[in-house]
Amino acid sequence: MTKSDYWYTDTESDEVSSLSAAADFLDRATSDSNYWKWSVVALHSAVQGLLTLSLRQGNALLVQKPGRAKEILSALEGGPGRIEPYMDNFMGLYRKAQDPANFLGSQPPVPPDCTLERAVEVFDQWRHEFLHFNSKGWSINIPMLVSRCHSASLVAEHILKSGGILWHSDDLAAESQTQLERVQRALG
């Protein structure tokens, strides 16, 4: 097998490609409302990637479900437990990103804001519903879709502006900002 037989991704490149896909889907949603689903899914992936990047702190323990982080630490210290990671859910990551205790010497990347948090909760629920669509019909107000996507983009913006991400690639850091600007332009 050659290198071209493999696809490589990581959290940074996935976050950037998810923002790019979100911008593309948002542009397409203006003429075909079926792309709203994919806009939400891609933007959710991007924001989750940014939450993860802001919380990784060199060891990624904050990214894990709380019980898993304790188990990983125990296993690393020779005690019982498994080292396999198990990432916390989206809202768990979001709440961790609001807690100043999770960031050394800097402000958290997401400001505590009840209105923003509720909008992001709805956005997260939609992503879940879109990916696990049941046998039903569903009408969603387009301005509400725009509003919730805008809220998610604000979370992305706060994280990128916080300076709390240790990027391994300056190019990806710059591209992330470029793609976020595309998302925000597409949202109007």
Topology:
Layout: H1 11-29, H2 35-55, H3 66-76, H4 90-96, H5 114-131, H6 142-162, H7 170-187
Helix pairs in contact: 1-2, 1-7, 2-4, 2-5, 2-6, 5-6, 6-7
Short description:
This protein has 188 residues and is mainly α. It has helices at residues 11-29, 35-55, 66-76, 90-96, 114-131, 142-162, 170-187. It has one domain (3-57, 89-187).
Explain what you see.
- The chain is an all-alpha fold and 188 residues long.
- The chain has one domain (3-57, 89-187).
- Helix content is 61%, strand content 0%.
- The protein contains 7 helices and no strands.
- The chain has helices spanning 11-29, 35-55, 66-76, 90-96, 114-131, 142-162, 170-187.
- α1 (11-29) runs antiparallel to α2 (35-55), α2 (35-55) crosses α5 (114-131) and α6 (142-162) packs antiparallel against α7 (170-187).
- The chain is globular and about 55 Å long.
- The termini are far apart.
- The model has no long low-confidence stretch (mean pLDDT 92).
How would you describe this structure in keywords?
mainly alpha
β-strand percent reads under 5%
Distance between the termini: 46 Å
Shape: globular
Number of individual domains: 1
Determine the oligomeric state from the structure. single chain
What share of the residues lie within helices? 55-70%
Q: Major beta sheet, specifics?
A: none
- Kindly provide the radius of gyration, computed on alpha-carbon positions and rounded to a whole number of angstroms: 17 Å
**Model regions low in confidence, pLDDT < 50 over at least 5 residues:** none
| H/E series | HHHHHHH
Tally the beta strands.
Answer: 0
Structural class estimated from helices and strands: mainly alpha
Indicate the mean pLDDT: 92
Number of helices: 7
